[in-house]
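Predict the structure of Sulfotransferase domain-containing protein.
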Amino acid sequence: MGTRFTAGLVFLLVACCFDYAASFRKMVNESVYWDINTQKGIIRGQNLRLRKLNHPTNPYHTCYEVTCEGRQCIDHKDGTSTIQVCYPAVVITGLPKCGTSAMYELLAKFPGAITMSEKENCPSTRRRPHWIYFQSLPRMSAVGEHSLIIDGCISVINNMKIRELIHYPDTYYLVMVRDYTDMLWSSYNFWCKREYDGTNCDYSKWAMPGVHQRSPELFHDLVQADKNHTAGVIQPFWHPMEKPCINAGGYYSEYISMHLYSRKLNNYTIVVASEELDMYPLRVAQRVAKIINYNIDGIDLSTFNKVRVNTQDNKGTNSLISTDKYLPGRYNISHYQPLLPASRTMINKCWHEDCIALSKIPPYYKYTACHPEFNNNATATTAGMNVLVLSEIMNP
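Done. Here is the predicted structure for Sulfotransferase domain-containing protein.
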């Protein structure tokens, strides 16, 4: 009786242990691997299976094993293919006409930097399947101990979507800001927009001298009309000139709080002003490096300091202009005329609230547009322009 009882007890214990072990293995597998097969960006009949990998020597990246099963997984042929890639450590996620191209160029100077095949290597763009996007990322075997992958994608919505799909990588998101009036004036002269160019363009085109008309007076009329007679739009961050004055109320601060801080990314958000990057690129590089805990000893900015990227009439992320030929606030398409002082005064009032809000977000940038008390302590590079008080940026 006792022997049978003991044997039965042992059997039950073994069975329970076996069931527990099987359940544990199942739990581990479910927690390590996950499938992407129904979301937008997945070809019908295709399944992506992911799991996170720990890079053996590099602490700056979250890496992944991605397995494609089914349709078009092997050079547009069906089958199964597996790759091991690392997601960027830093993504420049906004905002347009605030120096994102220059910031990308600066990060590319970091020792060990690995850049994408194109600056705007965005997920879920141009109907590109996720599998193609994953294939564009650097292979884990190519990422060394002191490598840093950087990417530029100003589609913050797509950046957040892929972040959720790949289960929240350890990535820093860098947001560029700029005096709102200067950003608007630059956008107006840079892009062709249906709001004021009609059907003669689309949102991906640039404004062209001889084709599109630009002037300080027309710009003033557009902003004045918006200020008095129109309503806002759903996505002002992409098209600031749709409703320039109405959207000014939270253009920068709401972008940061709505897209990044709301996702608890406060410690993974880096804000850099275009004006600071322009005047003190080494200081910007050192601050970014300190935040991400990356060693940039030996960085060489000698060539960076001599050029401007993707600005004025030299458009495109690979287009450069020497600094001695750069004319702040002057554009060929508007016959090199400066912005009207009345326009700046009007827009300063429109974005005053956001200017104040921005000064409360690290690193606490203070623009004279809303902090006129600093006018005497600031140095303007161009007469009549708002100024960023660079001496104040490190102190709240």
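The longest strand covers residues 63-74.
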